[in-house]
Amino acid sequence: MVNPFPLARSHHARSGDRHCNPMEPAAGERTGRYGPRVPSRRPRQIPDEYFAELFALLISHRDRALVAFWISTGARASELLGMASGDIDPGRQLITVVRKGTKAIQVLPASPDAFVWLRLYQAQMHGLVPAGRDDPLWWTLRRPLRTPRL
User: Which runs of E-coded beta strand occur in 6-128?
Assistant: First the structure.
């Protein structure tokens, strides 16, 4: 096996700081001729104006609540769609989700706006769907009303 990043072989490369002032910090040099550079990745994000435009295009309180929970908690869509009515705690601004891989139950803080949109959605669906603690929280908007497929 051959090292893909061989060290420089010349005498001058090994003594790069030989003629520098020892009181000054050493210059940062790569150790090999083909030393890879680590790319600096920008975090993935949506600019505020695009998010506001996206949010304004949503047509239902359910969709606004789901997007608000998604943005504020970072939970996966399948974790949000699998929530039951008893998994929300508006008083403490918390939701409970079942994590994907471990199936562990995790409590996540959510934004107050998400709970406002959720309450508007629940008022819209009142009397149309069951609202027990173990019943699904999210329902389709088309008839017949059913839970979204995961």
Answer: 88-89, 94-98, 105-109
Task: Quote the pTM value.
Answer: 0.68
Query: How many degrees, rounded to 5, is the angle at CA 107 between CA 106 and CA 109?
Result: 140
- pLDDT tens digits, one per residue of 9-32: 555 555 555 667 777 776 665 555
Residues 95, 25: Cα–Cα separation, whole Å? 51
CA distance 143 to 97: 27
Nearest to 114 by CA among 41, 51, 63: 63
Cα distance between residue 84 and residue 87, in whole Å: 5
Using only the alpha carbons of the chain, give its radius of gyration.
27
Q: Residue 51 phi/psi, 5° resolution?
A: -65, -40
Strands 88-89 and 94-98 turn out to be: antiparallel
**57/3 Cα distance (integer angstroms):** 54
Is 84 strand, coil or helix?
A: strand
CA 41 to chain centre: 16
Segment (H or E) for 72: helix 61-73
